[in-house]
Amino acid sequence: MCGMIEIRSKLLGLIAGAVTLAVTEIPAQAQDAPIRVAMGDIASVESLGLLVAMERTKERGVPMELTFFNSEDVATQAIVGGQADIGVGAPYAFIENSQAPLRMFYRLSSLLFFPVVNTDYYSSWEDLDGQEVTVHSRGSGTEALMRLMEQQHGIEYSAISYVPGAEVRAGAMLQGTVKASIVDSSSFRLLTEQGGDKFERLPIEGVNATDEALYGSSDFLNEREADVVVFVEELMRTWAEINENPEIVAELRTQYDLLPDLPEDAVNDIVPYYTGAAQDGVLPVSGGEPEDVVDDLNFLAAAGQVDAPEGDVDINAYWDFDLLNAARN
């Protein structure tokens, strides 16, 4: 079993039997209920920036807590059902198909993934015609990107399997149980370090899309507007600091005692991960722009997840930019 699999197993063990983890104690004098952030995965190196922004928001008197769910789909349903307040994802297709009053309000990361194949079997997109590929989850950016490549290259996969966690998919590739998948930068480094020439990245071009955003119900965003604006301000502050000095994430993790039981291998990956993210423009300092919404819809439409936009796009059907605008002023 590879090191990253062991890391994930240890982290899962830490939260086994618990659904909700408060990042810190909620101040007794807090007047409002804590803002419950739903994550369809376990907290990891990739979520440290978000956790730092949550801590800083709490320092300004807005209580927050982090809730874990089995998948992004379940997390989205929790937002709709009122079991959580803010979700992590990019639920364009869900909004379009269900007409649910959900709105995104902050772009956490832009899409940067690495389609990878085992070169013992494949060496090009065309080789994947009639073959199985593995992605993160149904409706995720990983699925959308692989679907888009399917269309662009005139191929058809025999099946798409869903395996949450890029490090889990990378581990499966190292073991040989998965031969074609899509992973993040950290897991791609793992594959190249441990597998060498056995794994090859397939080319992608011209993709500008949201990987993860924050979203909530319109009612919640209106009712807690002032608190959410504070959160957005701290997100923008944190993202700007990380882009200027990626090493600060390791310092802030220690300062706020975040993920204290993170295995050593994962701790050592913090600075490389955020250095790469900053260099590749994965963490947008603007928090999102209206043109990003159009790009997202075009990307998802090409991947067959939403209807192709026609004419002027109703940005407000998917996003609430009032919060970002308030935080910028």
From TrEMBL:
It holds the Pfam family NMT1. Signal peptide: none annotated. Residues 50-247 form the SsuA/THI5-like domain. It comes from the Bacteria. InterPro entries: SsuA/THI5. This is ABC transporter substrate-binding protein. It comes from Paracoccus onubensis.
